[in-house]
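Help: why these numbers?

___
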Amino acid sequence: MKTLVVGGAGYIGSVVTRLLLADGHEVVVLDNCSTGHADSIPEGVQHIQADITTSSEVLAGAGYDAVLHFAAKSLVGESVLEPSLYWHTNVLGSRALLDAITEHQVPRLVFSSTAAVYGEPETFPITEDSPTKPTSTYGATKLAVDMMITNECAASELAAVSLRYFNVAGAAWGAGERHTTETHLIPIALDAVAGRRDKLDIYGDDWPTPDGTPIRDYVHVEDLARAHVLALTAASPGEHLICNLGNGNGFSVREVIAEVERVTGLEMPTVTGPRRPGDPTRLVASAARAKERLGWEPQLDLGRMVADAWEFSNSPIAQHALHTQTP
């Protein structure tokens, strides 16, 4: 297939781009690199460095078979403080892309959605039928885009898949996390054991879990990439298929810390403080629909996520980014 990867210079988009290439697909990346990195795009892949609002110009007459959409602002805390930025970027940008897809009759869309659309669920594991009650602007904007896609499919022959995932970790094929503002536990923990941070903050050790720390679902970015490629052919024309992606079990903060210490052989400096307001006790997904409709199951465990992320964090490309980032 000829595919346009929107946001292909970012963490997940760049890994998916590599897998698409390996599977023989033709790939073009559209990314303005406002948060992504141009050097994350594999050599030989055309990179159109432009905003998502130029999608119509990019798709016009180009004969694309599919669009994979990763472009978004994604910092939960920032989204609460700057909601206008998130509504403009995530929703209006996606609206422009959907209009372009319809105008130029691209038959397939895979959208990078999020478990943040569920907010603080009351039952577990979380299924696609769980109530959607986002507690952040980020989650609300992603849900809005999902709703737009549902409407678009109902009115056309577009075959679309939204993939809602939880915590993504690891690295694959030379691509990994290089966020200027890092909010994810595993890369923060690796920075702490490497001495790039003074410590790792644990927000509460009195949660109603076996070890007193919150439990989250994690999935390896390589497994996630496989799901996106499988999703290209999973939906029928006029269908909007929504699938959760996760390991189905979850790991506590202390379990992640123990795995980081085991993999690296280094001791983790931690400080335990009070709970953060709004943090749920447990977030774990059911990926039963993804197994049924995509033929997808996660294959790589927490140890592999940590090991691959550790290797990437010590690679020349990650170290160069670390020393050239502006504060």
About this structure: The chain has eleven helices and 14 strands. The CA atoms of residues 31 and 311 lie 26 Å apart. Residues 83-103 form the longest helix (21 residues).
